[in-house]
Amino acid sequence: MKTRQIINFTGLLFMLFIKILADTLPLNNLTGTQVSAAIPALFNPAGYVFVIWWFIYLSMLAFGVYQLLPAQKNNLRIQQMGYWFTLSCVLNSLWIVFWHYGQIAISLLVMLGLLFCLIKIYIRSEIGKIKPTKPERWLIDTPFSIYLGWISVSTVTNIAALDFINGWNGWGLSYEGWTILMILGISALAIWMMCLRHDIAFPMVIAWSLSGIYIARQEYPMIASTSAVMAIVIVIFLLMLLAGLLENRELPESGNKELYSD
Is the pTM of this model over 0.90? Predict the structure, then answer.
């Protein structure tokens, strides 16, 4: 095995250890969901949505084991990730600690760093740009698409939480109005990812999150209805994508070094 494989797996184990520690102690006597509930930002989805974290951690564990296999030491897609995965694990761990202790501003900065790492991984591993093998589809493409989708949502959630705490006036636009803009923005990102990368997992995460906002914000009819409408729009685009109604592209096969960008 290469040093990179071992370091990546070590970073993964560290992240999982911090997550388990945070939920079993729990850190600062609060679970992550309780911290979110204590900051009733309007973009926050219902509590059930956060179960996706465990799916993400399990899928990252599956990826970690996969990339550790001797047969994957020369996998070009994993090689091109470099140490961005290790850094993402460190930043995820730091975010957990800062979030549990209510350091929202610092946690947002860490979350932005995590988002940047995942974007680098997404681009460097050519997700949506090449035709993956079956193992790669389920152990690289899908896990990192879901992870990136959720961290995109979480970044907006962190911003909304910080705005709520600081009582930001929104340049004259109401907090409800800014929440609706956030919903429209994250929905546009989901549609863009479907059109640009033909990604299925990423927009599914966004639709899942919007369903949680709809459930949690029934007392705000405009926010609830916007969330529901945009979730339906995303699902319609997903069905169009699955039906082949969006632009069809012939993707190069995974495994050919000449097909990878620098």
Answer: yes
